[in-house]
Amino acid sequence: MALVDFMSVLHKSTSRDYLARVNDPEYPKAKAAKLAKQWGYDYWDGDRRINYGGYRYLEGRWEKVARAMVEHYGLSGHPRILDIGCGKGFLLFDFLKVLPGAKIYGLDISEYAIANSKEEIRDRLQVGNATHLPWDDNYFDLVISITTLHNLHNYNLDKSLREMERVGKEHKYLCVEAYRTEEEKANLLYWQVTCEAFCTPEEWQWWFQQTGYTGDYSFIYFE
Question: Most buried of 10, 11, 39, 102 (most Cβ within 10 A)?
Answer without folding.
Answer: 102
